[in-house]
Amino acid sequence: MSKQLKQVINLSKKTGDRIIVFDNSEPEDSFVLMSLDQYEGLISNDKKKDLTEKKNIDNIKEDESVVSGNVKSSNNWKIPPQVKEEAEN
User: Distances in Å between the alpha carbon of 54 and those of 2, 58, 59, 68?
Assistant: First the structure.
């Protein structure tokens, strides 16, 4: 490994920055260097995002079922009349 590349990697370790390696003659061979901790964090965030998106899709499907009448709402509670009257006054 070249001395200059080692310097850049050490600087990246100190600052926590990522390194973009770009070659004008072969731009398709460009890449990014980052610490393993940063990479693991990136992967973890993607997995959390995927889970959140899946949950949102499931919630939308459930809401559509309730609206279309395919599923009864699980809200079978009622406001006590005294509480309702106080709120309206």
Answer: 45, 6, 9, 21
Delimit the domains of the chain by residue range: 3-72
| pLDDT tens readout for residues 29-70 | 888 888 888 888 888 766 666 667 777 777 777 766 666 665
Summarize pLDDT for 27-40 with one digit per residue, the tens: 888 888 888 888 88
Q: Is 79 exposed, middle or buried (0-12, 13-18, 19+ CB in 10 A)?
A: exposed
Chain-centre distance for alpha carbon 61: 20
What letter would DSSP give residue 71? S
